[in-house]
Amino acid sequence: MLGSAAVLLVLACPSKDRADWDWRAHVRRTDGSEVVLSRAETRPVLLVFSSAWATPCTPLLAELGGLSDQAQVLVVKADPAAPATAGDSLEFEILVPTGPELVEHMEIAVLPTVVVLDRSGRQVERFEGYSPRVAARIGAALDKVTETDE
């Protein structure tokens, strides 16, 4: 009996790796418009989950500015009603979730979290939290994605 309950539980849980799941359907720009990626076919995407109250987000966002030539950097505000943060003043596009689906699907539990997506939109790497070397590690992951996509 226990074995069949476990099987039912697994069958009832949707897969987090569904190829047809599109994260863009679960975010909007701050003006409410849909997200359209300008050069997604040529560059990977960094989804940066950030918040005004998570102090490590500020230095991470400042360091990610140097990676904007390698990837499209999109900042997803965990608290869209919060006042502007340092990241809002940078050259990054700011997105707000339309509901809990994006955070649940991406399993975001720590801020900041950076999710590296390849050109097809698949998650290939993720970085949680902040350390002085994290931007370099994210850059190395982008280099790998670019090499793999070529």
Describe this structure as you would to a colleague.
This protein has one domain (31-149): Glutaredoxin (3-Layer(aba) Sandwich). It is 27% helix and 21% strand. The protein is built from 4 helices and 6 strands. It starts with a helix and ends with a helix. Mean pLDDT is 79; it is low at 1-18.
Question: What is the helix fraction of residues, given as a range?
Answer: 25-40%
Q: Provide the domain count.
A: 1
Kindly report how far apart the N and C termini lie.
Answer: 50 Å
CATH topology: Glutaredoxin
What is the correct CATH architecture?
3-Layer(aba) Sandwich
Q: What is the top-level CATH class? A: Alpha Beta
Q: What does the overall shape look like?
A: globular
- Rg on CA atoms, Å: 16 Å
The CATH superfamily is identified as Glutaredoxin
At a glance:
With 150 residues, this protein is of the alpha/beta class. The protein has four helices and six strands. It starts with a helix and ends with a helix.
